[in-house]
Amino acid sequence: MFSNLALLAVSTTIGAALGETILGVTVFTRHGDRTSKHFPGYSLTSLGAQQNFQVGQDYRGIYLDSDSPKRILGVSEDKYVSSQVYASAPDQKILLDTTTAFLQGLYPPLEEVTRLTLANGSAYTNPLNGYQYVHIRSEPSTSPNSIWLKGDDSCPAYTRASSSFKASPEFQQRTEATAPFYARFWDALRNVHDYNPANLTYANAYDIYDLLNTASIQNASSAPANHAISHDISAPDLARLRTLADSAEFAANYGRDEPMRAIGGATLAGAVLARLNETVVTHGRRKFSLLAGSYDTFLSFFGLAELTAASTDFYGLPAYASTMAFEIFTENNVTVFPALEDVSVRFLFRNGSDVEELRAFPLFGRSETALPWSEFVAEMGKRAVTSVKEWCEACESTEGFCMVYSVPTTKWNPAAYAVSGVISGIVVGTAVVLFILAYRKLAERARARKARRARQDDVHRAEMGMPDKGAVSERTDSVGSESV
Ligand SMILES: *[C@@H]1O[C@H](CO)[C@@H](O)[C@H](O)[C@H]1NC(C)=O
Ligand SMILES: *[C@@H]1O[C@H](CO)[C@@H](O)[C@H](O)[C@H]1NC(C)=O
Ligand SMILES: *[C@@H]1O[C@H](CO)[C@@H](O)[C@H](O)[C@H]1NC(C)=O
Ligand SMILES: *[C@@H]1O[C@H](CO)[C@@H](O)[C@H](O)[C@H]1NC(C)=O
Ligand SMILES: *[C@@H]1O[C@H](CO)[C@@H](O)[C@H](O)[C@H]1NC(C)=O
Ligand SMILES: *[C@@H]1O[C@H](CO)[C@@H](O)[C@H](O)[C@H]1NC(C)=O
To answer: How many other CB atoms are there within 10 angstroms of residue 315's CB atom?
Structure first.
């Protein structure tokens, strides 16, 4: 399946080149096996938890194990050290569970590292054989930091750009050509309460694939009656449903002439830059970052980073528990963090939990799999969204946290909305509230700036290039902060 180019790349970069030192890694992961997204309350299955756990364990083997040639410089092998590890997920059960399972594999329970002896001589370990509680930053959709993980959510300009695909001749043609194929699945899907035969078209390519794929994996008789879907589907049919879903979802999340379709990939690029940069500015103090998100963000990034030029496989949906990793490394065998000129970045992808190894692929349509830090920053920078302000403006978002960027007198124009007395009353009321919120935010930022000035003699932090932790409200608009 892999193109010759990719094969060549893989054979030359699999495993660390002799003498090379890994300085840090940023990983973006998809959830493992889950119940169908079609039904509310969908969640990771036990199989899915095992998959994410397995992947976390494998990352442990590559980047933490003291015998691994790819061990991260100075990383704590067994004991979780909070300053070394950063983990963040959207505030959604399935992605928080995914992150937890991965981290359970990365830093498994160990009684000796959690053992505590009290003054009276009694010894304790954490429950569950020394379980290690890794801190996960959970980002609700109301937080500006949610955009780094799910930049396509609550983004009207994305929704517009994405659904414009449905008006394309390509879409019409595929819808017509596949109508008889989709119609064949009515028997299998007739129990889905909100489906009728007219719903069986290419317009629902992902939903139909997801319903039938989950049904083919899970035990139909354990599902409620209105969820019961026949799992009697042939492998070629399922493969065709997947390929059709691949094409629909790739087009919805990346388009050369529709840059807003790739907003999710652009914010992820910003997040990856910020995470790797944190390793750089702290001279390797932060070593491992884990972010969790969805398949659409993967596809969006694949398009944006021109991975499809390295292998056409990147047009396809990533398998459950897929991960992409960005290694920051130096070509020499070092014991201290090297000069910036000697730092490079490499992209790797693992398609799921069992079938494949983590493989290196060239980014940006190039042939080399490693780029010097400065070139990587420049290439990612061209594609990335790196501030909340940029996202709010590009998305034309009405999220609360965006209001601070649209001062009432300029962008927000209540007169334009005053179609009736009642509505204008609501609008003016809302405008007043928003104005107060924006004013508070500005006052907060002014306070933060003042506090920051007061701390400017903090030589150590400046030396480390660390973000101003105190100036939280000022920094939430920057992915350079710790709160990506
Ligand atoms: C790197 O250097 C250390 C000593 O500083 C040595 O023990 C190790 O074998 C070297 N590794 C490689 C791959 O050369
Ligand atoms: C030691 O102190 C802890 C906490 O106060 C207590 O639960 C435990 O029973 C004590 N052990 C002994 C041997 O007294
Ligand atoms: C199915 O089609 C009906 C209209 O015919 C629509 O109201 C409904 O939302 C569709 N259901 C799904 C799951 O797309
Ligand atoms: C499927 O689930 C039902 C109900 O939980 C159980 O009785 C049955 O044995 C399961 N089937 C298989 C093949 O495991
Ligand atoms: C990952 O696997 C899926 C099949 O599960 C395939 O369609 C897709 O092309 C693969 N992606 C890559 C990059 O290998
Ligand atoms: C890295 O962080 C430093 C300090 O916050 C900042 O000055 C610099 O612009 C950042 N670089 C990138 C590529 O984000």
So the answer is: 18
**Ordered structural domains, the chain, with CATH:** 4-158+257-405 (3.40.50.1240), 163-253 (no CATH)
Ligand 1 pocket check for 19: Cβ under 6 Å:
yes
Q: Which residue owns the Cα nearest ligand 4 atom 13?
A: 219
Which bound ligand lies closest to the C-alpha atom of 18?
Answer: 1
pLDDT at 219: 76
Q: Which atom of ligand 2 is nearest to the CA of 120?
A: 1
Distance 21 CA to ligand 1 centre (A): 10
Q: Among 238, 313, 357, 359, which residue has the most ligand 5 atoms within 8 Å of its CB, making it the best to mutate?
A: 313
Cut 0.85: pTM above it:
no
Kindly report, residue by residue over 117-170, the tens digit of the pLDDT: 999 999 999 999 999 999 999 999 999 999 999 999 999 999 999 999 999 999
The rounded Å distance from CA 369 to ligand 1 centre is 24
| Listed residue (336, 291, 300, 338) closest to 318, CA to CA | 300
Q: How far is CA 107 from CA 77, 78, 102, 397, 473, in A?
A: 8, 6, 9, 38, 32
Question: What is the per-residue pLDDT across 387-409, written as a single tens digit (0 to 9) for each?
Answer: 999 999 999 999 999 999 874 43
